[in-house]
């Protein structure tokens, strides 16, 4: 994949001050087509069926190893995202939307600087018909004590007509979504929207911002999107000094997440409970 063709064509527009941006031309059309082709040929994305509650999510996904593309995206965004995030118990309002939590857990305290994308993986999703993604906040991914993700990149892989649905919509924080309210149909809940109309366009935002994927208008214009995460590395000297019990709680929490991802739900529940007993602040 090319790594420089679209570099000079990027245009960044701030959606919310310091927390969300729309980027025109993050990828070029050739890169978009190649990523889409990888999902079709290597992972058979068009042959997959949707899983789970379709009220919340109607799409199929592929996880692709794309090291060259990941590196190209990183090179293009690294100077445009927050260069330092300093988290304390008193400055959470400066980073509204950073986390889903209403406050900052102690083990986030410290000085964080951007370090790269999540390994070499890029997730590609395909939606058709009434495809959508219900209102949610993204979870952060934790690699170790000093490395975790703070930013989501959602990028569009095809050109689509404005008005055919599929926009990324940022929503009011206190929205409650139940039953027939999934997906969101009232514009009063929408603070901002980014149309999925141009291949190569992307939206970059803090995980904690409430958002959804607008339902598609018809089967005629399917939506292709890729997703990647930006992780930050903390200066160890700025990290809080955790007690032995708190360190053990975080170790058990990692085991719980691994068990859940492996489908070992019973074990995961036991481990989550143990972690929360060791450190109740983790139960958020």
From TrEMBL:
UniProt KW Oxidoreductase keyword: yes
Cofactor(s) required, per the database record: L-ascorbate
Domain of life, per lineage: Eukaryota
InterPro entries associated with the record: Pro_4_hyd_alph
Molecular functions per Gene Ontology: dioxygenase activity; iron ion binding; L-ascorbic acid binding; oxidoreductase activity, acting on paired donors, with incorporation or reduction of molecular oxygen
Keywords per UniProt: Dioxygenase, Oxidoreductase
Domain Prolyl 4-hydroxylase alpha subunit as annotated: residue spans: 18-231
Protein name, per record: Inherit from NOG: P4Hc
Organism: Seminavis robusta
Lineage, opening ranks: Eukaryota, Sar, Stramenopiles, Ochrophyta, Bacillariophyta
């Amino acid at each position: 994949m090319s790594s420089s063709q679209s570099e000079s064509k990027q245009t960044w527009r701030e959606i919310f001050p310091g927390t969300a941006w729309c980027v025109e031309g993050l990828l070029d059309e050739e890169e978009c087509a190649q990523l889409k082709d990888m999902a079709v040929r290597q992972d058979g994305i068009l042959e997959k069926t949707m899983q789970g509650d379709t009220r919340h999510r109607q799409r199929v996904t592929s996880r692709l190893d794309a090291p060259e593309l990941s590196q190209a995206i990183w090179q293009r965004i690294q100077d445009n995202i927050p260069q330092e995030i300093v988290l304390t118990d008193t400055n959470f309002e400066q980073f509204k939307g950073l986390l889903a939590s209403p406050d900052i857990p102690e083990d986030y305290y410290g000085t964080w600087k951007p370090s790269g994308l999540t390994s070499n993986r890029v997730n590609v999703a395909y939606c058709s018909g009434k495809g959508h993604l219900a209102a949610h906040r993204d979870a952060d991914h934790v690699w170790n004590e000093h490395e975790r993700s703070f930013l989501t990149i959602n990028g569009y892989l095809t050109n689509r007509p404005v008005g055919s649905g599929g926009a990324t919509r940022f929503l009011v924080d206190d929205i409650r979504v139940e039953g027939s309210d999934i997906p969101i149909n009232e514009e009063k809940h929408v603070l901002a929207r980014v149309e999925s109309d141009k291949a190569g366009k992307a939206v970059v935002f803090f995980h904690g911002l409430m958002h959804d994927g607008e339902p598609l208008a018809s089967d005629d214009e399917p939506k292709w999107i890729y997703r990647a995460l930006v992780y930050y590395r903390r200066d160890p000297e700025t990290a809080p000094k955790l007690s032995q019990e708190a360190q053990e709680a975080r170790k058990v929490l990692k085991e719980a997440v691994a068990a859940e991802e492996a489908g070992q739900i019973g074990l995961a529940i036991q481990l989550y409970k143990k972690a929360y007993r060791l450190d109740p602040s983790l139960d958020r």
